[in-house]
């Protein structure tokens, strides 16, 4: 007999069950009921069977059988949670691993309620199980990325400070050697100090390289191929209301790098573009071979003039404010809601380009769109580093009378530079920051003949200082001191290796490099 309140149109039971099963399948959430009457009976839905990797016919579900699926390392915890839920009324809410009959390990999230009789005795446990393996994997990757970043920063920071100390130790040791007679007994000791400092410096050099480097599998490849294959994927990834267009250069010189990383970089840019175009729009991927001239390079520091393989990724999205633009490459900088943005997408793009000696720039106009420009050095380019060759005729011991502006925040290094140059005849303006250097220049009447600056200082960087000074005094020789590796420096603006003085350096090297830079100007 039909209940009077049930409308005619109510779907039959089978249909309801089918709908429920479909919903479970879509959500990857299965349901289960465990009888607590001592029978050990356990009822699994179809999706629960799927999650555990067994067909419904070939498995008789019991609570004991369930525990054999639970990963052995998690079994005690799951048992305890279940016991606590039944006897103490704790909520049953656990994440644990299961091992399917075929050996694959999956992560599941289980939640359950206990049905009780009026006396409070537990009758059955009614629960759901969700396969959360994909989410766990993403979380692991994210944690890994965070860890690498933290390690990189820590290693880089320690190595950087240590390097400054070593510059002073090795430098002063060499200065001292200059004053110790050849057969003086202290000579050997000081030589040992110098060698010890040099050995330590080779360790810091490796640490610096690591902190700026990911492991990559570099190959020589054609950017057009990468863009073509990724564009196909992007049209699907970005959805129907975003039009993906490509415009490829007729032919491009190959580039060096990890193609997988470059693909990932393009995907990161495309995903950002999608987020910036919630109502749809257009994404253009344009490759070209660009000859960048001096004027361009000056306006786009730190890039050096020359020929680059270029990729433009342009969207018609909401663009960015200046404040946002200034910070987008910082790890963990995001303007998106918690859970939506990690702030790591563009850091990865930046790191990838940086590592292969490339550059990334961005132009954005609010409400109009954003264009990222990626420049890759052609694989057939010049060798990455050419050691500075002292010009013939450059006499190390030649005395100078020029004025040298020194900017270095580390006082040990600053004092060492002063000692190394003390008897060379130069006039020194010693400053501890870019800001101080600017003030010293204003206060000084007379020319500045050379700028010797640390690359990275608190406040304005040495690179900014150099740019500002060269803008006012075209042709001013600049030497930048840095502990960072070649790869880093390429991106920090010091693309001309001749202008780079790698820390630690010896007084002799310092004098020679200064003399060379001054003579080259003449
Ligand atoms: P996430 O996307 O996780 O926030 P990203 O490093 O990829 O991290 O990007 C950092 C921020 O840069 C974004 O939160 C967003 O504010 C801004 N951004 C990046 N790409 C675009 C774009 N194409 N249009 C507008 N804003 C963008
Ligand atoms: Mg992003």
Explain this structure.
- The chain is of the alpha/beta class and 522 residues long.
- It has four domains: 18-131, Beta-Lactamase (2-Layer Sandwich), CATH 3.30.450; 138-210, Orthogonal Bundle (Helix Hairpins); 220-376, Heat Shock Protein 90; 403-521, Rossmann fold (3-Layer(aba) Sandwich).
- The chain contains 16 helices and 17 strands.
- Strands 2-1-5-4-3 form a five-stranded antiparallel beta sheet, with helices on both faces.
- Strand 3 and strand 4 (105-116) form a beta hairpin.
- Helix 7 (223-238) packs parallel to helix 8 and helix 12 crosses helix 16 (507-521).
- The radius of gyration is 33 Å and the shape is elongated.
- The termini are far apart.
Q: What is this entry, summarized?
A:
This protein is of the alpha/beta class. 44% of the residues lie in helices and 21% in strands.
Overall structural class, as computed from helix and strand content, comes to alpha/beta
Radius of gyration: 33 Å
Individual helix count: 16
Beta fraction:
15-25%
The CATH architecture of the largest domain would be 2-Layer Sandwich
Q: Whole-Å distance between the termini? A: 109 Å
CATH superfamily of the largest domain: Histidine kinase-like ATPase, C-terminal domain
CATH topology of the largest domain: Heat Shock Protein 90
Bound ions, cofactors and other small molecules, one mention each:
adenosine-5'-diphosphate, magnesium ion
Order of the strands making up the biggest sheet: 2-1-5-4-3
Average pLDDT across residues?
Answer: 84
Helical residue percent?
40-55%
Described by the principal axes of the CA atoms, the overall outline is elongated
Domains, number? 4
Instruction: Report the top-level CATH class of the largest domain.
Output: Alpha Beta
> How many strand units?
17
Low-confidence stretches: 381-397, 490-495
What is the makeup of the main sheet? 5 strands, antiparallel
């Amino acid at each position: 007999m039909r209940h009077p309140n049930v409308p005619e149109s109510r779907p039959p039971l089978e249909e309801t069950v089918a709908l429920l099963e479909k919903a479970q399948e879509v959500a990857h959430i299965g349901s289960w009921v465990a009888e607590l009457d001592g029978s050990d009976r356990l009822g699994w839905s179809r999706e629960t069977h799927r999650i555990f990797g067994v067909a419904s016919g070939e498995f008789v579900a019991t609570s004991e059988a369930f525990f054999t699926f639970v990963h052995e390392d998690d079994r005690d915890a799951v048992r305890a949670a279940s016991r606590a839920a039944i006897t103490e009324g704790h909520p049953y809410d656990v994440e644990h691993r299961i091992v399917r009959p075929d050996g694959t390990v999956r992560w599941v999230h289980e939640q359950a309620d206990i049905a009780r009789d009026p006396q409070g005795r537990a009758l059955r446990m009614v629960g759901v199980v969700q396969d959360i393996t994909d989410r766990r994997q993403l979380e692991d990757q994210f944690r890994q990325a965070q860890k690498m970043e933290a390690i990189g920063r820590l290693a880089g920071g320690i190595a950087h400070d240590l390097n400054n100390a070593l510059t002073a130790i090795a430098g002063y040791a060499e200065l001292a050697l200059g004053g110790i007679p050849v057969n003086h007994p202290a000579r050997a000791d000081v030589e040992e100090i110098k060698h010890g400092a040099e050995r330590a410096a080779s360790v810091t050099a490796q640490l610096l390289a690591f902190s700026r480097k990911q492991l990559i599998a570099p190959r020589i490849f054609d950017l057009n191929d990468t863009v073509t294959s990724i564009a196909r994927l992007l049209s699907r990834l970005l959805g129907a209301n975003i039009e993906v267009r490509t415009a490829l250069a007729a032919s491009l010189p190959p580039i060096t790098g990890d193609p997988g990383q470059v693909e990932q970089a393009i995907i990161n840019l495309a995903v950002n573009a999608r987020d910036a175009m919630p109502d749809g729009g257009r994404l253009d991927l344009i490759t070209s071979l660009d000859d960048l001239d001096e004027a361009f390079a000056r306006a786009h520091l730190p890039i050096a003039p020359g020929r680059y393989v270029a990729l433009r990724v342009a969207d018609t999205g909401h663009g960015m404010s200046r404040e946002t633009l200034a910070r987008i490459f910082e790890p963990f900088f995001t303007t998106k809601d918690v859970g939506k943005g990690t702030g790591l997408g563009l850091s990865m793009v930046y790191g990838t380009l940086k590592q292969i000696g490339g550059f990334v720039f961005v132009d954005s106009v609010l409400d109009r769109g954003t264009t990222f420009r990626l420049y890759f050095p052609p694989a057939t380019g010049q060798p990455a580093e050419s050691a500075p060759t002292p010009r013939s005729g450059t006499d190390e011991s030649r005395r100078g009378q020029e004025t040298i502006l020194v900017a270095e925040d580390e006082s040990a290094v600053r004092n060492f530079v002063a000692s190394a140059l003390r008897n060379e005849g130069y006039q020194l303006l010693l400053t501890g920051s870019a800001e101080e250097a600017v003030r010293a220049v204003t206060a000084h009447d007379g020319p500045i003949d050379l700028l010797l600056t640390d690359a990275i200082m608190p406040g304005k960087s040495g690179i900014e200082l150099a740019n500002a000074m060269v803008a006012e005094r075209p042709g001013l020789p600049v030497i930048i001191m840095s502990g960072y590796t070649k790869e880093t420096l390429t991106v920090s603006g010091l693309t001309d290796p001749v202008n780079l003085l790698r820390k630690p350096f010896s007084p002799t090297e310092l004098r020679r490099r200064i003399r060379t830079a001054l003579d080259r100007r003449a």
